[in-house]
Design a protein that fits this description.
heterodimer; A: 313 residues; alpha/beta; TIM Barrel; eight-stranded parallel beta sheet; two-stranded antiparallel sheet; B: 261 residues; 8 strands; 44% helix
């Protein structure tokens, strides 16, 4: 009997969200198939790759990445170099220096960094908070204000601060809201519900549903993303049709496989390579599970993952 | 599995306000009831214009256009014994939010409504009865088979026949309730869709009792595989029960605000 291919058709699609302005924009979502199921329907918008930079500069970067940014002395230099990275679609600025348990930089200092980066590049921007919900409430509201007109993604809107962050980013300053939950499908949906109940258009929301590094409870990430795409497409659940942006680097560069030095673990081989492997594997798995964009740190990871996307999508 | 489909029953010419509105083509009372039901979460709205022997075609066209143009082409069930009126309604019906439902055919005198649905690419509610309520489930399933075959012979997708077991009243037919529930399971096992006027079970009961009985009934029916019901969506307890059962059945992903969706 000949094989009769029957495409899986859904009467639903992931929302289309465009980040940035002018001719330098990226568009996420719009697809009505599972990830890379090009045999069911052509991909409308391929997944995108963002380059993560930090207000803390280059110090924490792996050696290979440091080498890439060599000669950069200001945040503006770093941002320009990140935007120029092969395979980069957007730049993601993480304001980790704002963390009260870390450097605890004042909001004004961080906003100065945000402005410096935004002025240096005209590519689409994503801004992440400092991981402290209270600080982020103030900080991200100011970020949304400072970047008015740039149509950026303000990430790190969480259950605890969705009113402050969502209202500022989504209502007052017309940015895209990044609703963040930590590998919890019910909370991911709930956050979208309450964010839209603030009056924010569902088309102006993206999700960060969380990730883990491959090998670190990663199967929960797969089932979460899978279930979300299944509900979005199969059940036409409009509270789950927001595109997913996944910050990968912040998870993968902290695990021992990436952080143990070669001196401590000679049998594991060069540290940089291990870190790149962890970052690429996790990003590939996130994309195959349903992420519409990933945020990476190492130039080699960015190049490899964007190449994979071109080959598959 | 798809979410349970509710068909709002409150645009019905037995209600004096609606009968008057239909006779005088007064939009307000009809739009008011349409809005109430949609706000309460109805998916489809039933438009019952009665026998409408005189001006049925004109009336159904008017009602379909009135409701669809005011409520973003909400899908409708066209409910009348007048076949020409149903056809007239379908001729002006906008399908962007769902096919029209022909309400209804049976295995007796109204079997030709299946032909009508087939000819117009519509869904049809197929009552598993011929002359009077089926005596038992053997008879119910015979009617079901007959109507299913007729629809499929005419090229219908089996999913477009929504089988109605005929809900019966507890006060008088209490011993028949489990039989109705078993019929739903049989439809479901055959992969068929089903629906029905579920609140029939509580006919004649005190007003405060009916939502309780209807909610219990819908929960049991959904367990058996019922895919839709013709209900009063303004019954909050009933709608909350349906949404909760949709969660248990994994038809919709749970979120703390699920009752507000």
């Amino acid at each position: 009997m000949p094989f009769n291919q029957k495409p899986q058709k859904f009467n639903a699609k992931i929302n289309t969200v465009t980040i940035g302005t002018g001719d330098k924009t990226v568009t996420l979502g719009g697809n009505s198939t599972f990830p890379f199921y090009t045999f069911d329907a052509p991909t409308v918008n391929t997944p995108k790759v963002g380059v993560e930079i930090s207000d803390l500069g280059l110090e924490a970067l792996p050696e290979g990445a440091k080498a890439y940014y060599e000669g950069c002395t200001t945040m503006a230099d770093i941002a320009k170099k990140a935007a120029a990275m092969e395979g980069a679609d957007f730049v993601a600025l993480v304001l980790e220096g704002g963390d009260p348990n870390g450097e605890d930089k004042p909001v004004e200092d961080l906003i100065a960094v945000v402005k410096e980066v935004a002025d240096a590049v005209d590519c689409p921007l994503v801004v992440e908070g400092c991981k402290n919900v209270e600080k982020d409430s103030t900080l991200l509201a100011k970020v949304a204000e400072a970047l008015q007109g740039r149509n950026v993604v303000v990430m790190s809107e969480k259950e605890e601060n969705y009113k402050a962050v969502g209202a500022a980013a989504g209502l007052a300053y017309n940015q895209i809201v990044g609703a963040e939950s930590a590998v919890d499908i019910n909370l991911a949906k709930q956050l979208n519900v309450v964010t839209t109940q603030l009056g924010i258009n569902a088309q102006n929301i993206v999700m960060n549903v969380g990730t883990a590094c491959a090998g670190y409870g990663y199967e929960y990430v797969v089932s979460t993303m899978d279930r979300i795409k299944g509900a979005a497409l199969g059940q036409n659940d409009n509270m789950l049709q927001m595109p997913i942006i996944t910050p990968v680097a912040s998870e993968t560069w902290g695990v021992k496989e990436a952080s143990a030095s070669e001196a401590d673990m000679p049998e594991w081989g060069p540290q940089d390579e291990r870190g790149i492997d962890m970052e690429v594997m996790t990003a590939a798995a996130d994309l195959a599970s349903g992420s519409d964009a990933v945020i990476l740190r190492h130039p080699q990871s960015v190049a490899a993952v964007s190449k994979m996307i071109k080959a598959l999508a | 599995m798809a979410k349970f489909i509710t068909i709002g029953e409150r645009i019905h010419c037995i209600a004096p306000a609606i009968r008057d509105a239909m006779a005088t083509r007064n939009p307000e009372p009809i739009l008011k009831r349409a809005k109430e039901q949609l706000d309460a979460g109805a998916t489809y709205l039933d438009v019952n214009i009665g026998p409408a022997e005189n001006d049925g075609e004109d009336l159904m066209k008017w009602a379909v256009q009135l409701i669809q143009s005011n409520f973003d082409n909400v899908p409708l069930a066209l409910d009348t014994a007048n076949k020409k009126a149903i056809e007239a309604g379908i001729s002006v019906y906008n399908r962007s939010k769902g096919k029209p439902i022909v309400n209804s055919a049976d295995a007796g005198g109204r079997i030709e409504n299946i032909d009508l649905a087939a000819a117009n690419d519509a869904i049809v509610i197929a009552l598993c009865s011929a002359e009077g309520i089926a005596a038992d489930n053997d008879e119910r399933m015979m009617h079901c088979q007959n109507m299913l075959e007729r629809g499929m012979m005419l090229g219908m997708d089996p999913g477009d026949l929504w089988f109605d077991p005929l809900f019966v009243v507890v006060k008088g037919m209490q011993e028949k309730q489990m039989e109705v529930l078993e019929a739903i399971k049989m439809f479901s096992d055959m992969g068929l869709n089903s629906t029905g006027g579920l609140s029939n079970n509580s006919n004649g009961m005190p007003k405060h009792i009916r939502p309780i009985m209807d909610s219990a009934m819908v929960a049991m029916c959904m367990m058996q595989g019922l895919t839709s019901a013709i209900v009063n969506p303004c019954d909050l307890r009933l709608m909350e029960t349906i949404k909760s059962c949709d969660v248990f059945k994994n038809n919709t992903l749970y979120a703390d605000s699920y009752l507000e969706l």
